[in-house]
Design brief:
Elements lengths: L2 H6 L3 H10 L5 H9 L9 E5 L5 H10 L2 E6 L4 H10 L6 E5 L13 E7 L2 H4 L5 H5 L3 E14 L17 H6 L3 H9 L4 E8 L3 H8 L7 H11 L4 E10 L1
Parallel strand pairs: 1-2, 1-4, 2-3, 4-5
Antiparallel strand pairs: 5-7, 6-7
Helix pairs in contact: 3-4
The protein binds S-adenosylmethionine.
Length: 241
């Protein structure tokens, strides 16, 4: 399932690229698993929402030849354009600055697929977000999301070992599969195709812990405390009807 990622990571130079570009569990691996549940081809126009430094965009352009609008809030389009040039995908990847909570600058029904990896939980935790995104996807197109989550809702009972890592922002964004399922089931404009725990959880987290990010020591402490007991990765795929 992860042939593209494995081949990419077989080069030392690419590993350095990846270590500098990761912003969480290895987005290339997450993207490859999520996309394996979709039928993507080179005629498709994809919105990669919350693309960060574009590892998902790299996978979607190189593996499938799709045209990708690489939209993000924290990472500038200039930084992403330079990165896309460096890996030869600037003819297929359009970097753009967006804030999903403020509305998107695209035509209605412009995209075949809205794809989002390790980002949707930051802005998608309200009943308003999904209906605000649906109009940008063609009827019959798909919305596919992969996000970090937890195996059950902690509520007020955050496990003691996780308390040092649990603040209001984490509590707002990190939820269980059933919590997300319940949120998406309220939306009438989609048909839910697939909601499941992803297989690459441990491996993609382990790869993230090798990254160059300045706060990585704290992430290592959190993953040691968690120790495979609480975290998962959740994928959700819906068809726009
Ligand atoms: C943890 S990073 C992951 C980035 C990338 N998808 C990856 O997996 O490497 C979360 C991303 O969500 C994006 N994001 C957060 N809130 C957003 C919003 N309101 N609109 C668009 N993007 C947002 C941030 O800009 C950031 O790049």
């Amino acid at each position: 399932m992860y042939q593209f990622t494995e081949r990419f990571m077989s080069s030392g130079k690419n590993i350095e690229f990846l270590k500098a570009a990761m912003m969480g569990p290895n987005a290339m691996r997450l993207s490859e698993e999520l996309s394996s549940h979709l039928k993507i081809n080179d005629n498709m126009r994809i919105l990669d929402l919350g693309c960060g430094r574009g590892l998902s965009t790299l996978l979607l352009t190189k593996k499938y030849g799709a045209t990708v609008f690489a939209a993000d809030l924290w990472i500038s389009p200039t930084e992403n354009h330079e990165r896309f040039q460096s890996v030869g995908i600037d003819d297929k990847a359009v970097p753009i600055s967006v804030d999903a909570t403020k509305g998107l600058p695209f035509a209605n029904r412009y995209f075949d697929l809205l794809f989002s990896v390790d980002a949707y939980h930051y802005f998608g935790d309200t009943v308003e977000m999904l209906p605000s995104l649906i109009p940008f996807v063609k009827k019959g197109g798909y919305i596919a999301v992969a996000i970090p989550g937890i195996k059950y809702e902690f509520g007020d009972n955050v496990p003691d070992e996780m308390k040092p890592f649990w603040n209001d922002d984490v509590a707002r964004t990190i939820h269980s599969l059933d919590w997300w399922k319940n949120l998406w089931e309220q939306e009438k404009g989609i048909e839910i195709i697939d909601i499941r725990e992803m297989l690459c959880c441990k491996q993609s987290w382990d790869e993230w812990l090798t990254s160059d990010w300045q706060g990585i020591e704290q992430e290592k402490k959190m993953m040691k405390a968690e120790s495979g007991r609480y975290f998962n990765l959740i994928q959700m795929i819906a068809k726009v009807i």
